[in-house]
Amino acid sequence: MPARLAFALCLITLAVNLQAPLYTTYADLSGYGAAATALAFSSYVLGVLPVLLAFGGLADRVGRRPLIMAALLLSMLATTLVLLAPGLETLALTRLLMGVGTALATTTATAYMGELLGGADSTRAANWVTASTSLGFGLGAALTSLFLLRGPTLSPGSFYLQLLLAAVALLLVWRLPDRRPTQRSAMLRLPCYPPGSLPYGLAILLAWACTGLVIALLPGVLRQHGLSEWSGFSTFCVISCGVLFQPLARRLASVRATLLGLTILPLSYALLAWGAENGRLAAVLAGAVAASSACYGFIYLGGLAAVNTLAGNEKTRASAGFFLLAYLGFSLPVIFTGLLSDRLGSRMALVLFGIALSVACVAVAKALYSPGKRTCRASRQTLKN
């Protein structure tokens, strides 16, 4: 049963970056530049925020399973829309829909996974969720790039494959048990940050800011060097390769895993940005894999496990708080960097982002490492199954 939920989560997140290799094509069709592309990409957060801020009690009212099914249906609707009317405007709408769906799924996924695992500890449930979502977020872009190798098209076979597999996942989730009884709890349940959890949220904000920059703006930089066909693979590397590092992350205490990720993140970004700006594909892919180890290996797994450990009985609200910061990082820095790219050029925009990222990583690492913080509670919790 946990595998069915993991499959569904993978298909939901797969749809999120399915169109990533076509971003520059959509921008050309609509006649816009990097800033508009970043805005369309970041409309995702407009779908995420209402769910995280205003519908925290929805899972208690309707159950866990309906939210996963709704997220699958929204992913299918988003993919269908971009097939019917490709363009930057449609991309903005589809990413908004996918933001709603992903927020519905991820805020309840860890708690639901724990229930399907028979009340297992939250760390094991977090491992399942992070692995399946990390794979999905990157796999969509890679699949589209594979289909685009056969020739340019606005309707690659990966879109139809997502629709087919999501329909299968919908049937599988429909047959899952929903063991938590529905309750007449308050609908408005704001995200919360248990003592010691905020630095983990800030760490994932920085990690996903790096990821968002790669997905939204790197394709345009790569195109300048005739490397457009590799944009989807760079997205896959910067997200899904993090799964390879999760077994190592599980052996570390949450705080140590997160600190290691914060150390790797600015160094890997520097390699990736240098490679993109100079047309060095090997450096781009190596930097993307290293960044993925930080973003979706050490920081994502370590942070989510720590937050759920610190949350006690407030796991849903604490997960919402964690993902709220993650999605803010996934969008706002990308918009700002896109504006800088249009005004100052891509090189200067990448340099300024790198400086800000490095300074912020040092500040968050200091907050995590401070012995007076209650994050030391999480340091005693390992990520080992």
UniProtKB/TrEMBL annotation:
Residue ranges crossing the lipid bilayer per the database entry: 34-55, 67-86, 92-113, 125-147, 159-177, 198-221, 227-245, 257-276, 282-306, 318-336, 348-369
Major facilitator superfamily (MFS) profile domain ranges (all copies): 1-385
Gene3D superfamilies given in the database record: MFS general substrate transporter like domains (1.20.1250.20)
Keyword entries, A-Z: Membrane, Transmembrane, Transmembrane helix
Superkingdom of this protein's organism: Bacteria
Any matching Pfam family: MFS_1
Keyword Membrane included in the entry's annotation: yes
Name of the protein this chain belongs to: MFS transporter
